[in-house]
């Protein structure tokens, strides 16, 4: 049988593969990361792997909230895995930053002990938008079943918010405030939102705990960026072939990677600044630019592209009329929504992002980006709509991704297919009760105030979305490929 990647076999790797530059047998954990999915493994774990070369016990204890698949796959590999950079200049590197992997359902005691351990100085997380359990007024969503469970059973939490609150309660008792909580999700003001969720939750447990957290624990905001499609079988077999050893769960990403962190810590941290991480007083600009320009156009490509039979980001952006749409959306409605004194830099930033979409070595599935639309669209598109309405700017093109999302939900419901979204049941039900008529379904979906909030009652917004639904419904796949000027 082919030999597998592990600490023991590291010396048998192909020569051009980079390996950890620190002692894997000695260095200990200083970080607990909740949600060690592909993005974390390609991004924060990569930076931490590089920073470990400067010393310090900064390895990561990864905590999966539900699934034990990653833990099982990486156990025979001593949690080592490869990062394949897939671009014009490909490269391969084995990362060792993750020392331990645990799953909440199997290892609760180990996880609780780690979160409360004085050795752990950073608790970070990538739990996606829905993991923050906030409602559309920005407060903890006490209707959320996981939050209800955790408030009733604060010693047996099943949500990330409940888990962090439990750890901070123990730290309040032991007087150990030497820890920073870092959100790494694509959420506006991610640190502030996480703090709000945890402090609201803590308040239900005890107002003193809420106050202690507020006064002692830092929740810096961050901007994270690197396109990291899910690992498929092709990636697995290519990586294993290039490695010379079997790797059961490598990850892939593009060359570009960026991490900007608000310089606000309540304890020590790895020397991330030595390995390309930017520390700044205020990440608002970086965060807004990235969420609106990259994630906003990504979601537009996903819903418009899927509507017209495209599979990947590359397929969609290579379609002339879709490319025209994206450029116009950026230039007319997204870029003007971001305050800057250097518009040319922002335009260049957007052009660089479009160039990244043209990476033909990466198959980034639109269906993956289309997940969780109810959670993503508010940060990616609706906040921009709000700012434009407020400033009397156009919202016409911004209504295209919203219209395309309504048609996506409607078509999925008609085909009897499910969608990956925490609100899937309610959305499919809204589509079904109007017999999938695009205009009627859209009108009903726009009533979903948990997504659209006050925009549900905004007739200008509604009229634009409905008009775009009619336009999109009239297009054919051939139009998009050949003749259409969508704007
Ligand atoms: C994507 C992001 O899946 C998605 O919704 O838009 O994950 C995107 O690839 C990253 O934010 C890039 O940094």
Automatic annotation (TrEMBL):
SUPFAM superfamilies: 6-phosphogluconate dehydrogenase C-terminal domain-like (SSF48179), NAD(P)-binding Rossmann-fold domains (SSF51735). It comes from the Bacteria. Its EC number is 1.1.1.-. Keywords: Oxidoreductase. It is an enzyme of class 1 (oxidoreductase). PANTHER family: MANNITOL DEHYDROGENASE 2-RELATED, MANNITOL DEHYDROGENASE DSF1-RELATED. The keyword Secreted does not apply. The keyword Oxidoreductase applies. Pfam families: Mannitol_dh, Mannitol_dh_C. Residues 30-274 form the Mannitol dehydrogenase N-terminal domain. Transmembrane segments: none annotated. Residues 282-472 form the Mannitol dehydrogenase C-terminal domain. GO terms for molecular function: oxidoreductase activity, acting on the CH-OH group of donors, NAD or NADP as acceptor. This is Mannitol dehydrogenase.
